[in-house]
Fold this protein.
Amino acid sequence: MSTQARAIYRGLTKTYPDVRCELDFETPFQLLCATVLSAQCTDKRVNMVTPRLFKKFGTPKKMAGANLEVIEDLIRSTGFFRGKAQSLKSLSMKIMEDYGGQVPADLNELVKLRGVGRKTANVVLGHAFDIPGITVDTHFGRLS
């Protein structure tokens, strides 16, 4: 992160000290999955879906071994459920194979996972690992 970006980040955290993620999660993996599901969906809807999803498949190992159709059924109401289900299964398999079952705490590694872009990676880094970053919504990025 550049010096200017760090200064902006410090100013924002001073002005807004109590910012928290609206997605419900207990682990970095759960936040990663919830953030992938939040694409084109409200956080409220994602929070309605994830308790059942995480009860069945709350770890990378369980999600990697899950039947794709079962994942699809559990996340159907989030929209674009087929692609999201494939992303969840694929990223879980990669986490198991390449990262020993642990969500990587590195932007460059996170964006290698299917369905994970810079925004999702920064959400996970900031809220699961307390690693500073600036999460920019796609639409805001186009305006700036």
In short: Residues 26-133 form a domain with the Endonuclease III; domain 1 fold (CATH 1.10.340.30). The chain has a mean pLDDT of 92. Residues 41 and 59 are 22 Å apart (CA to CA).
